[in-house]
Amino acid sequence: MALEPKSTGFRSIKNLMNKINANRDLEKATVVSVDDDDVPAWQRQIVWNEVEMGLLAYSILMGYPIGVIILWQKPDGVRVPIDGRQRLTAIKEFFNGNVAIPNLPKVNETFRNKKYKLHNGDLEKGFIAVTSKEKDLFEDYELNIIQYENIDEETAMDIFVMLQGGKSLTKTEVRAALGGKLCDFITELTSTSVSSDDETEEEPVPQHSLFKSLAKNVRNVRKAHRNIADVLVHEVLYPNQDKHWSSLEIMYRDKVKGLTETDKNKVRSLLNRFKKDFTRKINQQDVLAPQLRSAFFILSVFKAWKELHEEYDLPSHVNFPSLLANFERLRVENPDEYPFINFTAALSNAGYAQNRIKQRHEILLSFFLKEIPTAMPKDRDRRNFSVEQKIAIWEKAKHQCEFKDDKDVRCAEIFTNFKDADADHIIKWSNNGPTTVENGRLLCQRHNRGRKD
After folding, report:
1. Are residues 257 and 401 in the same domain?
2. Who contacts 226 (Cβ-Cβ below 8 Å, separation ≥6)?
């Protein structure tokens, strides 16, 4: 079952403190606790000192964000922090008058040495009470607070461990925490369990051959492989959509129970074929194309490769590693030239966006088609060249109209945009000329349109 955080039903610090200071004898389900007796042993102990607690109170009074607080409702009903114990404790201690905003240079003089409430002797120590307006600001401050219900302690601990000492979860880790069939499948693809008697700290060995090979290309293997798998599986199940983290999370929720064996077999089959096509023998060893490193670059290569196989009949052997190496060599050598400048920009600037993915796809697929000019559309009745074929023909022609007159003089018209030119069949389509890059030529409208044929 997918984990889904719920609203706590309260947001303000005033309401939170009513829960923290609630009478536990009335109803445990109304209680929020940061006390050692309630908080699980795996939670971090209180490590903030009074200065750090006071600075959090100062941040709240200044209206600064203090991050998400995540609670777990235990089987006994009491809610305890999975993440946020230090912050909740600081709020509690300030609210109860046990800590003050510190007298530090970086603190606005208006707030220095102020307490939410004063105890006996505080005035003599130089402490002063917050004003009624400041008290309202503190009490009305809206927390970003969520809670998990109906999960066991092991799951709550797993979430805590993934927070890595209180740091925010990465988007990949959030998806991994959702659980369910898809989560298990991604785990199956990218890692295996390390035996309990293995005292080494080595990364788990990926189960799927693609990810075993990627381990030599990609750093931070555990997280990177999972993110790559998320993106590729999403492309198989939800093709041509954006790969924003929210879209990937929706996939996890959609497939928490609905991931079928057919889905999994389709993914495995495509990943197997992709890995095979981009692997070559070096010194008797299978080596995956070293250019396959980052998630969105791999996605673009995967999409272009997938469409080639789906839409075209290819020659008996296509050397995909060499094609990719050539593309990347040209991209490095010509970083400020079209189309490589556009590809790099679409890769680095919001690379998850649908329009950026489409832009990279057109560039890379057209490059492949230019290098495989005999690739034949499976739809033999297709007369029009695809966008990627037209780009490939435009590139092959060096952006210049290819019409030649009776004296073999070539038309001088140059096209800075492929859309302004026409792609024409050399052997006419009506004469069974194939719709391939090899049988395509670039023509200006003057030399193409209006012809009787």
Report:
1. no
2. 172, 175, 176, 186, 187, 190, 191
Domain encompassing residue 431: 387-448
| Residue 238 reports pLDDT greater than 60 | yes
Please tell me the pTM assigned to this model.
0.62
Handedness of CA 281, 283, 287, 291 (dihedral sign): negative
Q: Can you list the alpha helix ranges (DSSP code H) found in 320-434?
A: 320-333, 340-348, 354-371, 387-396
DSSP lists the bridge partners of residue 32 as 79
197 band by pLDDT with thresholds 50, 70 and 90: very low
φ, ψ dihedrals at 355, nearest 5°: -70, -35
* 8 A C-beta contact, residue 312 and residue 386: no
Residue 148's closest CA among 84, 89, 81, 85?
81
> Residue 388: which pLDDT band, with cuts at 50, 70 and 90?
very high
Is residue 435 domain-shared with residue 310, that is, in the same domain?
no
Residue 382: count of CB within 10 angstroms of its CB = 14
Using CB atoms within 10 A of its CB, is residue 81 exposed (0-12), middle (13-18) or buried (19+)? Answer: buried
Number of H helices, E strands in the chain: 17, 12
Which of left, alpha, beta for 20 (phi over 0: left; psi -120 to 50: alpha)? alpha
Give the whole-angstrom CA distance, residue 436 versus residue 74.
Answer: 64
Do both 153 and 182 map to the same domain? no
Residue 361 is predicted with a pLDDT of: 96
User: What is the total count of domains within the chain?
Assistant: 3
Say if residue 368 is in the same domain as residue 398. Answer: no
List the one residue out of 360, 337, 365 whose CA is nearest residue 350: 360
Q: Is residue 256 part of a domain?
A: yes
